Please model this.
Amino acid sequence: MAEAVIRTASQIAEREGLIEVTEVNVRLGEIQQVDLEVFKFALSQLKTQELKKARFNIRRAEARFRCRACGCEWLFSADELDEEAREAVHFIPEAAHTFVRCPECGSRDFEFTSGRGVWIESIKGVRE
Amino acid sequence: MKIDPRISLIEERLKGIRRVIAVSSGKGGVGKSLVSSALALTLARRGLRTGLFDMDFTSPASHIILGVGDAQPEEADGIVPPVVHGLKYMSIIHYVHDRASPLRGVDLSNVVTELLAVTIWGKLDFLVIDMPPGISDVVLDVLRLIRKAEFLVVTTPSRLAFETVRKLIDLLLELGVPVLGVIENMKMGSSDRIRREVEGRGLNFWGEVPFDPRLEESIGDAGRLMRTEFGRAIERMAAEKLGIT
Ligand SMILES: Nc1ncnc2c1ncn2[C@@H]1O[C@H](COP(=O)(O)OP(=O)(O)OP(=O)(O)O)[C@@H](O)[C@H]1O
Ligand SMILES: [Mg+2]
Ligand SMILES: [Zn+2]
Model:
């Protein structure tokens, strides 16, 4: 996903006419349990020319689920899952519907209210 | 602002694929999974680099048809699908196995996007997609995310099936999306109503596939599937209509 962030940041920079990006604000959802240090390292390795001086501010977004059947909200932690389920949710967060149930009513009909995926919140830079 | 970086990666991931064929219908139970499996096997057996992507995330079936077993993808800055019967094979079953995956529309959309963004297909001549029934989330996502997708539409002779199939066709034509052709599956009787409806819309009628009572016995055995009347009919059509030798 680091590759996707770099790619998208470059595209936004180009679209906005930035010759040099100084700051990229990224949110990293916790559902997929991406290791922050590994992610930061991957970003630094992949930086393209216009991103060379950019500072990547990465903020985590906690994994929150809400049950559609009973309304219960809870914080999800992948530590409760076995190896196979953890890996499934890492690659496809929606696999949570296969491996996780609402702690109150047991339903699998819940939504992710926070913490799904990686996204770019804003980019700052220098215009020509 | 909330920009999803996966979208920019998808284009890159699909760059090495020459043609994408989405086997769809709108209607359920008409034979999409069997047609897409037999089509992909035909292409692979002719030495073409072929992938099969099962996009029916709540009721995948192609793994049963092909007898995929426990082949697993590999992780390498993305996911490299395993090769099954000469096909690069991607399905949610690699992750959820034989368990239920109850997913709503937004989830289906996320699964399509996620898998398109992470799957490393490499160079392919054809990527065949086994589409779910319905004209909703996954169809709309394929239209949105895979600009080069061509649709191969499956119907049965039933007026009830074609009523929905016709709506999908009309939608695709309205959007200017290429419709490769229409297959009339489970043919019994001799009415040429479907052929006339299809050709009347200026589309290519790929032909009829007879109802084959032996088909069920071949499920799970790819070699046997291709020796059935069904398998041979799909092979013949693909060879003729896609111009492969
Ligand atoms: N030509 C045929 N002759 C006999 N049986 C057939 C034929 N084509 C398909 N079938 C049978 O019809 C059923 C549905 O086939 P299949 O699963 O491929 O349809 P589908 O369109 O993918 O369904 P879904 O909409 O649920 O994904 C299967 O049991 C299959 O064996
Ligand atoms: Mg199917
Ligand atoms: Zn609940």
Notes: The pocket of adenosine-5'-triphosphate (ligand 1) is lined by residues B 25, 28-34, 56, 59, 61, 133, 185-186, 209, 211-212, 215-216, 230 (CB under 6 Å).
